Amino acid sequence: MNLRSREPLIFDRSVPGKVGLDLPKLDVPPAKDTRPAHLKRHGFDALPSCSEPEVIRHFTKMSMWNYGMDQGMYPLGSCTMKHNPRLNEKVAGLSGFAESHPMAPSTLVQGNLALIYTLQEWLKEITGLAAVTLQPSAGAAGELTGVMLIRAYHLSRGRKRRAILIPDSAHGTNPATAAMAGYEVVDVASAADGTVSFEDITDAVTGRVKKGLLAVIAEHKEDIAGLMVTNPNTLGIFEHRIDEICKCIHEVGGLVYMDGANMNALVGVARPGDFGIDVMHMNLHKTMSTPHGGGGPGAGPVLCTAALEPFLPKPIVVRDTEKVGEGEVPHHTYRWDWERPQSIGKVHSYYGNFGMLVRALTYCLSHGGDGLRTATLRAIVNANYIRHELEGVYNLPIKTASMHEVVFNDAIQAHHDVHTLDIAKRLIDYGFHPPTIYFPMVVSGALMIEPTESESKEELDAFVHAMKMIAQEAEETPDLLHQAPVTAPLRRLDETTAARKPVLRWTKALV
Amino acid sequence: MALGQLGFFMRYLPTAPAEDRALLDAIGVARAEDLLTGVPDHLKLHRPLDLPPTSSELEVLREMQRLAELNTRFRTRFLGAGAYAHFLPSAIDHQISRQEWFTAYTPYQPEISQGTLQHIFEYQTLICDLTGLDVTNASLYDGGTSCLEAALMAVRVQKKRNKVLVSAGLHPHYLAVMRAGFAPHAELELVEVALVKGATDPVDLATKLDDTVAAVLVGYPNFLGAIEDVQALSELAHAKGALLISVTMEAMAFGWLEGPGKVGADLACGEAMSFGNTTNFGGPFLGFLAVKDAFKRELPGRVVGQTKDLEGRTGYVLTLTAREQHIRRDKATSNICSNQGLIALRANIFLQLAGPEGLKGLAEQNVAKAQYLRERLLELPDWEVPFEAPYFNEFPLRFTGDLKAMNESLIAEGILPGLDLTPYGHTNCILWCATEINTRHQIEHLIEVLARVASVVG
After folding, report:
1. Is B90-350 in CATH node 2.40.50.100?
2. Domain B76-85+356-457: which topology?
3. Which residue is closest to B185 within chain A, CA to CA?
4. What Å distances lie between residue A236 and A171, A210, A406, A449, B329, CA to CA?
5. Fold annotation for A90-365
6. Nearest CB to B257; choose among A41, A67, A490
7. Is the overall model pTM greater than 0.90, yes or no?
8. Candidates A67, A359, A382, A429, partner chain B, best to mutate (most B CBs within 10 A)
9. pLDDT tens digits for A448-458?
10. pLDDT tens for each residue of A149-195
């Protein structure tokens, strides 16, 4: 990283008269100005004037300040940073898909409908659930859709239920979603390993009693619309009493929502439908490796039981099969079904992030059923290898068996005044993206490491080595860690001032 | 081969059998399955998934090409209705294919995510510039969900007001998304305002405005292509203390129309897929929401801000996070986390290439092509004007002939016609769209085919 690689804002590069996009000479009469006078565009304050080579260099230089998946391990726990196959990108760009129009009659988009139908069949088999919508754009949108299904289900039975139970180890989107869907959130105590506690838990320090599942159910009974649970949970631990949890909730007429953010630990190994789960989402940008894109787009399909199927968002793909003679290949046609009177409506303007669905099906076809299961097992082996190699070097606060990720904390390094943030930032100097830090909150100073199946033994060993070096530095030269990162384009950034005096866009006055 | 045995090899899995053995030996288990001690046996799947086996890259490519080719291809397209076919500069696909952009996660670690963060800061600047407002976020999912987020935000800002008025001129799918999102909130009310001559009826709006109304949503341009008078409507709304939210589903119109914030809108939301994307069967698209500065702490979603590092150098971070789900949980402004990052990048590259001259030129060509298309259509005997309203690149015309036969003839000629508005309450109307990619030749070909059909049908 040399000094020339520092890249100013494009607005400081703009020179009037330059243009990076041109058009054919207008081949029809020029536009007549039919605008109401007060709605005429008066110009732009920021839009820059630059040529194509300058814009390309600008973005290329900025990109060099990013860390990407092809540079090395990206062990962000719960984010599932796995390899992004290039075939998937190529296929999503096929003009047959890319140029298809969402408002075109379904007879003109048979390939898209066949693709959606096929991906739905894969996801149903993977999860063991009966029905599915691919409309939600991301995990959080999937959660909201799922909880809206729960609400519609109760209303159709004349029940007004107000409460959604959520274990306190849950991801923040769960309570945010329940609130967006009009529910009151009722906390359920988690055991030390983050799993749902059936019994009350007394906080050792404060003496405060948090209600376990049984007490919460006894208190709220028929007011319980459902429970949201992440499995494996945010500590990478399988919720081992998940079937009993479902049973307890079902007994009071509630439904169970599973946050499938960690479904990549279960594919081919266990199926939520077999546990008694009623509704769940999957993050295709995690489990099926559609690229994260620096913050999206994702895709958050929702799967549910037959009982919830009538409420799914509109429209639904229907396959009609023409009867054919014996031994002939049946001919399928596909159409949208909009006549769904109990549907919750729409959760996306069209049919979801279709380009992501193309990539996800490509991923599924490449792996096959056998490859998907192997990927799951490899991810679990890799996480457990890291756990084994680093246990003792870093504190492993919870000893329950890990699935696809492992959570350490800074308890050992804290003796040298080195904390999770310092460890994470020092990993940057060793050429790795840091793990997820300070989450889940049930572990103080959490370092949540998820290697995924994409890492070779060589890369895992390099990561383990870096972590051991950092542990040694914590003892010998702790200030080195407080200063980290020192090799990144920038040092630690002042987030407090950023929030207190927000500068959220460039303005001329800023120059 | 045993179930999921680790000897299984495919091109994306990097561990050789001997290395598998070494990993398992180090952990101290015989088989990978032995690590599943946390999963009770009765909850495990004791059979292979009933799915096809792994396939080579070439086989998968062939299958996906087969599916892509099942879609009908068109040489010429006149369909918009929220998803617009525009010119796509070659630089965009090249740039976003850099692994630094498309494989990266949300920029949680700013020291090694400055590329994404600076890009979002620039993108935010441009969305504010186009909309004439002060603050925006890193993106929302799409036009429909942006309307829902904007309306919910307006209700939060406008305490004690629980009603949202929404123009019947919004895209019907956006309305459907809003209805679904409002349904769980018994305390909130969503009321439609009627149209007159294709635009929001000011009389009906005035009747429905009272001190319980938090906000009014109007299209700019609307679903029927009409350019709503945002200024006049905002004056009506403001007089009753309501906010005006403009909804733009064709962001290219910002090259021709004043930023809604400059003519009275308090919030501007909508769809910006037109900047550097294909129609992509409706997604991934690019929702946006820009607001006045006073509302910034009620914005949903990720926001990037400028700051300094330890050595005083300028840098960028995710900020105002106290609004978000990971801090506020059930009190958050929204549950959104993943948004449309890479699509915002496409839009940012597009806008920087276009610049003020390019965007103005694009917009003017859209208007010129649409005006030419409309004039030529109206020269035919069986097309009528349902109402007169100023438009950008889209307008409805009523067809007096056999609409089904007309549509079929166009499709047979490789022309994708405009949207049949019959299911949306405008019987026998077609919503025609022309953009800079439609040539005079294409328009003339369309007219030729229509004239031929008319003489056959008539």
Report:
1. no
2. Aspartate Aminotransferase, domain 1 (3.90.1150)
3. A182
4. 12, 22, 6, 9, 21
5. Aspartate Aminotransferase; domain 2 (3.40.640)
6. A41
7. yes
8. A67
9. 999 999 999 99
10. 999 999 999 999 999 999 988 888 999 999 999 999 999 999 988 89
